[in-house]
Each structure stands twice: as structure tokens, then as C-alpha cells.
Design goal:
Low-confidence stretches: 8-12
EC number: 3.6.5.4
Number of helices: 12
Subunit structure: Part of the signal recognition particle protein translocation system, which is composed of SRP and FtsY.
GO cellular component, one term: cytoplasm
Number of strands: 10
Mean pLDDT: 89
Distance between the termini: 14 Å
Bound molecules: guanosine-5'-diphosphate
Catalytic activity: GTP + H2O = GDP + phosphate + H(+)
Strand order of the largest sheet: 5-4-6-3-7-8-9-10
Oligomer: single chain
Order of helices and strands: HHHHHEEEHEHEHEHEHEHEEH
Radius of gyration: 21 Å
Organism: Georgenia muralis
Structural class: alpha/beta
Strand content: 15-25%
Length: 306
């Protein structure tokens, strides 16, 4: 997995390599430091974290008093790692719950985010990951606004071999489909039910109503363990602002950062966690069924620096 992440990131031109090469120049001038700052900002690390990192790098490289690449690399590695937050809890909490009826209920996962960020693809890939862990899965196509969305999810269901609950009627109540999916999961004693939603960025109140209702209705059958917000890593600050709206209307428990294979802007990991106060739990590294991986800070930083 790490090898794959490394290859993907290397192909897109890594942030860490650029920093490493500047820091190894020795006796850094003000223009070198400006270059470091620009590199961080261009990689979407964000203003606050960039300022912080600049300060610690200045101090630590001064104390270090050497330009030995290995030593500089070690400083950079530990500072980047601290920034990425190795202490954050990134586990997917998918324990089944025991209902009032004394029976085990599936863990449910709600997947939200703007259209085009890779939501449906992520749901398909997540099903694959869970199946590989020997869990039984049911998917729910609660994006009922576009018939194509349910078709796309059905295709994923066939591909990874899991049932998909959907409505044949375009414009059906998304909460009703979500409820059916969780009920089907419960009746078939599935371990996990993952529900895909529409990402229409209408007004905030509308979105809040819609996602709130879906979550409430799902909770009647089984507790919603995870609300995953999907964010496209290539969309920068604009994507962040849109993600923020979702985070304000529903309690997000984790971020899935997609299309990390197509960008050198890995710094968005830092920015999004800071701004939304939620850890990145999974990363999308391509369009295929196996291109979703748990986010491991150490692997990520090593990939940036390799
Ligand atoms: P949705 O509208 O949010 O459900 O987005 P889709 O799941 O339909 O994905 C939009 C496009 O992004 C599709 O062409 C996907 O194949 C592509 N995509 C999704 N995730 C990734 C990823 O991690 N890497 C790359 N390169 N493409 C992705």
C-alpha cells in the first residue's frame, strides 16, 4: 500500500522533495525561506499551518547547524508528521449495535459531499475494503435526484458483489431509500450499511433538512456510526469552503480525501483537518475498486519525502 501511495505521489511531484532540496542548500537566505513558504501554500497546506511550520523549521534547522540531507530530512519528516496529526483517531468505528430487541444491528455509514467529488466511487471502493475484511455489506442509493447515480452505484454493487437498495423512481424520498437500505441490512444480518447521498449544494437550510432527515430516519433502525465527508483534493480552497457547509449541517466523523493521485497538493490534508476539526480517515488514489486506502500519517509523510 505504501509503495503504491509513494508511486502515485511521486508521479504528481511531491511537496516534500521540493522542501528537502531547498532546506539542504544550507545558510538559507530570506528568498530561500520565501520559496519554502510558497511551496507550502501552493500545496494547499493553508496559511496558519504554513506559518507554524516555517517557524519550527527556521528554529530547528538553525539549532541543527548542518545541511546534511539525512539530518534535514529527519527534521522535516518529524515536523510534517506533527502537522498531519499522528495522534488523531482514524479508525472507522463499525461495531454492530445491540438494539432494544436484543438483536445485533448493522453499523451504518452515511457518505456526504458535493457532487463530483467521488462520493459514489468511494462508497463502491469502501464496500470492497469491507468485504475484504470479511464483513457483509449493503449499499443504499439515497441520491435519488439523478437516476444515473443509482445506476452507477448498482454497477459498483455488481463489481464488488454486494446488494444495492435503490428506488426505481427518480425523485423518491432519499430518507425512505436510506431507511430501506438499513432495514434490508438489519433483516439480512449485514455487518455494515453504507448510504450514498445527493450532493446538491442548494441552500444550507435545505441541505440540513435533507441530511438531517436521512440520518434521523436511519438511526431508527441502527445507530449511524460514521458520517464520512468526501472532499476532492484537487479543488483547493473552493472545495474546502463547500465541505465546510456539509460539516456545519451534519456531524462529520471523518474525511475521505479523493483524487490524491492526481495532485501535488497533499497539503490539503493538513488544511482540511484544521478547518473542519475532523481527521482524514481514508484516501482515494484512483478510480479502480482497490484505490481506497486508510490514511496513515507516517506513510503519507514518507511518501511526500521519498
Ligand atoms: P460523486 O458525484 O461525488 O458521486 O462522484 P463520482 O463517484 O461519480 O466520481 C466523479 C469522478 O471522479 C469519476 O470519474 C470517478 O471515477 C472519479 N474519481 C473518484 N475518486 C477518485 C480518485 O480517488 N482518484 C481519481 N483519479 N479519480 C477519482
Amino acid at each position: 500500500r505504501m509503495q503504491r501511495l509513494r508511486e502515485r505521489l511521486a508521479r504528481s511531484g511531491a511537496l516534500g522533495q521540493t522542501l528537502l532540496s531547498i532546506l539542504s542548500r544550507g545558510d538559507l537566505t530570506e528568498s530561500d525561506w520565501e520559496e519554502i513558504e510558497e511551496t507550502l501554500l501552493l500545496a494547499d497546506v493553508g496559511m496558519g499551518p504554513t506559518t507554524e511550520l516555517m517557524e519550527t523549521l527556521r528554529t530547528r534547522t538553525k539549532v541543527l547547524g548542518t545541511t546534511d540531507p539525512a539530518a534535514v530530512r529527519e527534521v522535516l519528516r518529524s515536523e510534517l508528521l506533527a502537522l498531519v496529526g499522528p495522534e488523531l483517531d482514524r479508525t472507522l468505528h463499525l461495531d454492530p449495535a445491540v438494539g432494544d430487541d436484543g438483536l445485533a444491528h448493522p453499523a451504518t455509514v452515511l457518505v456526504v459531499g458535493v457532487n463530483g467529488t467521488g462520493k459514489t466511487t468511494t462508497v463502491g471502493k469502501l464496500a470492497r475494503l469491507l468485504v475484504a475484511e470479511d464483513r457483509t455489506v449493503v449499499l443504499g442509493a439515497a441520491d435519488t435526484f439523478r437516476a444515473a447515480a443509482a445506476d452507477q452505484l448498482s454497477t459498483w454493487g455488481e463489481r464488488v458483489g454486494v446488494p444495492v437498495v435503490r428506488s426505481e423512481r427518480e425523485g423518491a424520498d432519499p430518507a425512505a431509500v436510506a431507511f430501506d437500505a438499513v432495514r434490508t441490512g438489519r433483516e439480512s444480518a449485514a455487518d455494515v450499511v453504507v448510504v450514498d447521498t445527493a450532493g446538491r449544494l442548494q441552500n444550507k437550510a435545505g441541505l440540513m433538512d435533507e441530511l438531517g432527515k436521512i440520518k434521523r430516519v436511519m438511526s431508527r433502525e441502527a445507530p449511524v456510526r460514521e458520517v464520512l465527508l468526501v472532499l476532492d483534493a484537487t479543488t483547493g480552497q473552493n472545495g474546502m469552503r463547500q465541505a465546510q457547509v456539509f460539516a456545519e449541517v451534519v456531524d462529520v466523523t471523518g474525511i475521505v480525501l479523493t483524487k490524491l493521485d492526481g495532485t501535488a497538493k497533499g497539503g490539503i490534508v493538513v488544511a482540511v483537518q484544521r478547518e473542519l476539526g475532523v481527521p482524514v480517515k481514508l484516501v482515494g488514489l484512483g478510480e479502480g475498486p482497490d484505490d481506497l486506502a486508510p490514511f496513515v500519517p507516517e506513510d503519507f509523510v514518507d511518501a511526500l519525502l521519498s
